[in-house]
Each structure stands twice: as structure tokens, then as C-alpha cells.
Design a protein that fits this description.
The chain is α+β, with helices and mostly antiparallel strands. The chain has two domains: 99 residues; 103 residues, ATP synthase, E subunit, C-terminal (hypothetical protein PF0899 fold, 2-Layer Sandwich). The protein has a four-stranded mixed beta sheet with strand order 2-1-3-4. It has five helices and four strands, in the order H-H-E-H-H-E-E-E-H. Helix 1 crosses helix 5 and helix 2 crosses helix 4. A hairpin with a 6-residue loop joins strand 3 and strand 4.
Length: 205
């Protein structure tokens, strides 16, 4: 081999060695970068999974809370419906009682007598509903009221019917003082207590 050829071969060998070194270094750097990338990706994936689990848990808790809230609202709605039915049935029984004169007349007499006493005037104007004005013997009712009062009090009867299930409104002649003793007023006053008692009886509340 000539000197020129040997020189060329040495140069090529050195170039190949250098190239191999560069390639090896590049491969090492690539592997290192790949490992680092895997580590970063693994860490990011772990964080993503952890965040996803936290988000899923938050969604789960929120959905459970909303489901419980909806259930509570539905329960309250159903209870309210039941209590409304109880009140309606109670009101219907009172209406039935008002149509039974043997039970109703003593009750009406007591309501009017109580109203007259509370009014305290020498003359009282009594207001009844249309049904009572039509069916009740006013003269007999007035006598019964007089017996209960045990004192002189002139009673006059209004010809204008009131809107009520029954009972009466006792007023002064000039209308400035009014004692409302209607069945409706009594029922409305008792309604909160009825709701409480019905709730305790039906739901233990």
C-alpha cells in the first residue's frame, strides 16, 4: 500500500471512529432524553389520573348531594300533599257538620253568644251566610242566644249574607266594630296547629 493510500485509510478510519463516537453520543443523548421524557410523561399521567380521580370524586359527591336534595324535596312535596288532603277532609267534615242542624245550631248559638259578649254593645247586628238565613228559624235562634247571654241585648239580623261555611259575624250597628266568629276564621286559626298535630301523627315530626 502506498503512503498516499495508507494516509487516506487512516483519515477514513479516524473519520469512521469520530462518526461512530458522534453516533454513540447521539444515541446516548436520545436514550437519556427518551428516559427523561418517559419520566415526565409518567409524572404528568400520574397527575392527570390523580386530578381525574379527584374530579370524579367531586362529581360523585355533588351528584349524591343533589340526589339527596331532590329526594328531600320530593319527600317534602309528598308530605305537603298528604297534609293538604288531611286539611281538606277536615274542612269537608266541618261542612258536613254545618249541614246537620242538630249539631250545628248549638255551635252557631255559642259563636254568636261569644261574639255578642265580646262586642259589649246594647245592640248587636248578626251576619249569617245565605244557607243559614234560608233554613234556620231566626226567632228560635234568638231565644237560645238570649238564654245563654242572661242579659238584655237587642239583636238585629243583617239581610246581606256573608261568604262563609257557617258561623257568624257580630258587629255594631254602625259597622265600626266587628267580631268574626265564622267557621272559616276558626278553621284558619286552627290550621297551623292541625298541621303540626297531623305531622306528628303521620310522620313523627
Amino acid at each position: 500500500m502506498s503512503e498516499t493510500s495508507k494516509f487516506t485509510e487512516d483519515i477514513l478510519a479516524a473519520a469512521r471512529a469520530k462518526a461512530q463516537s458522534i453516533i454513540g453520543e447521539a444515541e446516548n443523548q436520545t436514550r437519556q432524553a427518551s428516559e427523561e421524557a418517559k419520566t415526565v410523561i409518567s409524572r404528568e399521567v400520574g397527575e392527570i389520573i390523580q386530578n381525574a380521580r379527584a374530579d370524579a370524586e367531586a362529581v360523585k359527591r355533588r351528584e349524591i348531594s343533589e340526589a339527596r336534595h331532590r329526594s328531600k324535596l320530593q319527600e317534602q312535596k309528598e308530605k305537603s300533599t298528604i297534609l293538604s288532603e288531611v286539611l281538606e277532609k277536615t274542612r269537608n267534615r266541618i261542612s258536613d257538620m254545618a249541614r246537620d242542624q242538630t249539631k250545628y245550631l248549638p255551635y252557631l248559638t255559642n259563636l254568636i253568644e261569644t261574639g255578642v259578649r265580646e262586642l259589649g254593645d246594647d245592640v248587636a247586628l248578626i251576619h249569617l251566610n245565605q244557607a243559614d238565613l234560608s233554613r234556620i228559624n231566626i226567632s228560635n235562634l234568638e231565644k237560645e242566644i238570649g238564654k245563654q247571654l242572661g242579659k238584655e241585648c237587642k239583636i238585629e239580623w243583617s239581610k246581606e249574607p256573608i261568604e262563609a261555611l257557617g258561623g257568624a259575624i257580630v258587629s255594631s250597628i254602625d259597622g265600626k266594630a266587628r267580631i268574626v266568629n265564622t267557621i272559616d276564621q276558626r278553621f284558619d286559626a286552627l290550621e297551623p296547629k292541625l298541621l303540626i298535630e297531623a305531622g306528628k301523627s303521620l310522620f313523627g315530626e
